[in-house]
Fold:
Amino acid sequence: MINFINVSMVYPNGTKALIDVSLRIAKGEFVFLVGPSGAGKSTLTKLIFREEQPTRGQILFNGKNISRMKPREVPYLRRSVGVIFQDFKLLPNKTVAENVAFALEVIEASRREIEKAVPDALERVGLAKKAGAMPSELSGGEQQRVGMARAIVNNPPLVIADEPTGNLDPDTSGEIMHLLQEINKCGTTVIMATHAKDIVDGMKKRVVALEKGRVVRDEERGGYGYED
Structure:
């Protein structure tokens, strides 16, 4: 599904975020990205949905070279990728349902599609009864579940989760991880950048470790490998 081929990313200030990264992720995998802060995890995920473009190398998404896409093609790429953020990024002046619907509005889905898809997505994350609530009325875990509903409402083949449990307590983190596992079981590829040692060690999924912009470890059923 995703293939990084000798990818490097150097920012204008000279920071080398990624150095000669080659990595293949198959459809339906659950992959943890781990490593110290500044290792390149966020840069790697941003390259997948073309928020950033590599300095060198190729990134293939279902066989198509992302870096060679024309600007008009990028929105179609992003329809295939749901993104879950650490800080939720909900619109404070919109209800739960409106926040989820917004993800479909920006890709110009029909009103009929939105009216069907939004309740389905909220049901999947256990928030059907909170559709009319405002973000300020929700707990942190509920806000993250809204973020998850927004990420999956278009049934994308890939979900990227960037530190989705970083602002949550352990019990709530467990609920979020259970939902991500359920999404993955339905065939969605999940890539999760995290510092959560207990979660990584407990789930025994594929672990890709980055340090100073390089892949230093790639293990099936791996562990976190770093101290808290």
